[in-house]
Amino acid sequence: MNLKFTLLFAWYYGFNTILRGPSYLIAALSTPMTLLFLVYVLSHGTLLAFAVVGGFVSLISTISLSSASDAAFLRIQLRFQDLFVPTRTGPTEYMIGLTLSYLVFSIPGIAIYAIFGYFLHIMTAIRSLEMAGLLIVLVVSTASVSFIISGLIKHIRNVWGIAAILSIVMTILPPTFYPYVYLPKWALYILSVSPSTPAAVIAQWIFGLSPALPIMIPVLVVESLVFFSIARFMTRWREN
């Protein structure tokens, strides 16, 4: 495991992207922030806590899923992965480094939502730690979906629309900005195909906004392992 490469790549592709193109950060924050505002207006503030908690989940999911275009661009257009073929850096290090870069890129947005949570008196030290662990698992699962998508794409022109559609379907429809108890059980389990759904349910549970649904913990963990395994298998490398 080339840990040095993984951490440096995550820092370079995550932090430097913020410095080089702050407009990308604003674009990534635009959808979650807009939805938070709409939830506040339409619910007259009654669902604001749900919107803030769901904002963490939506932010990570949106950035990771839309980054399928980045993964495909690096592989197809720049042939960036070919640079590592003669090195000791393998596909796993590359995938983890790129995944962590999405998490680094999300830090400013996470900080903003943490400030909102502080003023709403829902953030505590324990909840913050639990939420941090949840977001790490979520970024792995959603980034793995991005790698799967980018691995299936044959031409770069197809990835932008697919990534945008999946980003909306897998982050807006799940109960990220509203209580999951509003959904019938059958709809909740169908939406659980998206990692955002179990993550949102767990987040609402962590912050005491909705009843506990412990089954969602193994669902999210299993999805993360399955998606990552599929993504690792599909990552084009060396003889692949």
Taken together, the total number of domains comes to 1
Beta-strand segment tally? 0
**Low-confidence runs:** none
What would the average pLDDT be, to the nearest integer? 84
3D shape = globular
Helix-residue proportion: over 70%
Distance between the ends: 20 Å
Strand proportion, as a percent range, falls in under 5%
Q: What kind of sheet is the major sheet?
A: none
Radius of gyration, Cα only, in angstroms?
Answer: 18 Å
The count of helical stretches stands at 10
Give a structural overview:
This protein is mainly α and 240 residues long. The protein has one domain. It is globular and about 55 Å long.
Furnish the topology, listing elements before pairings:
Blueprint: H1 3-20, H2 22-42, H3 48-66, H4 68-77, H5 91-119, H6 125-152, H7 159-171, H8 185-191, H9 196-206, H10 216-234
Supply database-style keywords.
240 residues, mainly alpha
In short:
This protein has 240 residues and is mostly helical.
